Amino acid sequence: MSTWLITGCSTGLGRALASAVLDRGWNAVVTARDPETVSDLVDAHPQTALAARLDVTDPEQVRAAVGAALERFGAVDVLVNNAGYGYRSALEEGEEDAVRALFDTNVHGATAMTKAVLPGMRERRSGAVVNISSIGAQLCPPGSGYYAATKLALEGLTGALRAELAPLGLVAMAVEPGGFRTDFAGRSLTGTSTVIDDYAPAVDARRKENDRVHGTQPGDPELAARAIIDAVTSPEPPALLLLGSDALQAAREINEARRRELEAWAAVSESTDIREG
Fold first, then answer.
1. 64: CATH
2. Which residues contact 54 (CB under 8 A, 6 or more apart)?
């Protein structure tokens, strides 16, 4: 029986994924900063669900959550690093403590969780690490540069990890959702209190108080959960899984624009090689 450890299960994609895993009869370590928010999932699946208190920025809670998973189920087969949140700010407006906290959760927290489960996965030569990124990593929208940077960092780590794990029979993959009807653009979204008027034309529409996206996103978290499970359990899990037609369309447009620019500057790129003789 497969055992999944999923971070950030109180709402949204993490909760939908935990529910989908449990509905398949698999084990799930369902984590949240407040375990009471996931108690209903555990009550509905008392034999296969374990609630664990987890703030991914707390090393002791990371160790305790993984330890509880191993004690109860014997192994962690799939780690899903889903815990994270958004932060809206022009780069110059970014508040140092808030930006550090953002990276601590979105990047360092995921890294700590991954390092905690990898020894067991390596010993068994079996396992998967799934890192939830965002199409924002490709779009880099104005006003979301710090958030995009955390997801770009996470994807860079995931790409290297995938190559490091492949010879061991393990898998790492990144997931880029588009807009889904979760709390990401609502309760989970934060923003700077520092406002510089010069950035208003580029940034104001995306400030939390002006954002009107919440509740109108096209993506269904339950369908996203099924897609992630299908990808993880497929014979060849992808390196990058896009979720949502909006994410797919954005990626296609971005890749085409990058291709055109790459070719436009190809001669300059090639001109920097040392010419012998």
1. 3.40.50.720
2. 7, 31, 32, 33, 61, 62, 65, 83
